[in-house]
Amino acid sequence: MRLVLLGPPGAGKGTQAERISREFGIPKISTGDILREAARNGSELGLKAKGYMDKGDLVPDDVILGLIEERISSDDAANGFLFDGFPRTIAQAEGLDRMLSSRGVTLDVVISLDVTEENVIERLSRRYVCSECGRVFNLVTKAPARKGLCDACGGKLIQREDDRRETVAERLRVYNEQTDPLRGFYRQRSILAAVDGNGTLEEVYGRIRREITRGISP
Ligand code: AP5
Questions:
Q1: Closest ligand 1 atom, CA of 35?
Q2: Which residue stretches of 109-193 are H helix?
Q3: Distance of alpha carbon 138 from its chain centroid, rounded?
Q4: Which residues lie with the beta carbon below 6 Å from any ligand 1 atom?
Q5: Strand order of the sheet with strand 157-158?
Q6: Which of 88, 123, 135, 207 is catalytic?
Q7: Do you find a cis peptide bond into 87, omega within 30 degrees of 0?
Q8: Catalytic-residue membership of 164
Q9: For binding AMP, which residues are annotated in this chain's numbering (predicted)?
Q10: Mean pLDDT taken over the chain
């Protein structure tokens, strides 16, 4: 099964992707997570990417496509995967098409998580992430058991650099300009499923699950 989760910053892609990955047994491939990990390690890629990310801009397409090509060639992606935050431009979607067709496979479903701008801003202002392992929390909807500390590894919880109000505004602008057109791109191929991403974590997951099951049944 090959899936894409599309949606604006803070739509809940990463949160829902964790659960889909567990239930359907496919790896979650998040370009944002890969880039943040590279930045934490201080690699050349990480340092280059950080400059774009901290401003809310997109990392260049050729860098992202190189990462994806390498990642989907891993053994654990042989039977499928779930993209979170990729593709993000028409050029990335076309690059992905080329990679998949050279492997003789296609995407099954593209889930578009639609969330109001008001909800996005509220969710991001309350999001905290672990500085050590990257796990995501929310002060209201997914609070850690111990204040300021990660449930998984005990690391310190911090706010993401790009969750500052002015950077969120820029990320939303970039999303509307460069990523939103992908909905039309995939709708034309009849693999787009628009899902209401407002509501509780459980409600949203139920809607996504229905679309995935419908999209992969014969
Ligand atoms: P990336 O990490 O992909 O960020 P994003 O798309 O902006 O998405 P977020 O991670 O902010 O949000 P999310 O939708 O995953 O929401 P979450 O589940 O955390 O990209 C970051 C940067 O990397 C980009 O700006 C760019 O520079 C670069 N980049 C990455 N991929 C790229 C690519 N392909 N091309 C070029 N550049 C790329 O949820 C948010 C919060 O809300 C959490 O606290 C969560 O607990 C809470 N929450 C979730 N769902 C609900 C709900 N239903 N109700 C209440 N709270 C909820």
A1: 23
A2: 117-125, 165-174, 181-187
A3: 17
A4: 7, 9-15, 31-32, 35, 52-53, 56-59, 64, 85-86, 88, 92, 123, 127, 136, 138, 141-142, 162, 171, 199-201, 204
A5: 136-138, 127-130, 157-158
A6: 88
A7: yes
A8: no
A9: 31, 36, 57-59, 85-88, 92, 160, 171
A10: 95
Domain boundary assignment for the chain? 2-27+74-216
Nearest in space to 2 (alpha carbons), one of 26, 32, 23, 30? 26
Contacts of 168 by beta carbon, 8 Å cutoff, 6+ apart: 9, 10, 56, 120, 121, 124, 162
- CB 120 within 8 Å of CB 168: yes
CA distance 98 to 191: 17
**Predicted local confidence at residue 94, as pLDDT:** 98
- 160 is annotated as an active-site residue: yes
Mean local confidence (pLDDT), 87-107: 97
Which tens digit of pLDDT belongs to each residue from 31-82? 999 999 999 899 999 999 999 999 999 999 999 999 999 999 999 999 999 9
User: What are the structure tokens assigned to 133, written together?
Assistant: 């392992």
Question: Which homologous superfamily does the CATH classification assign to the domain defined by 2-27+74-216?
Answer: P-loop containing nucleotide triphosphate hydrolases (3.40.50.300)
pTM (global) more than 0.85: yes
Residue pLDDT, tens place only, 108-125: 999 999 999 999 999 999
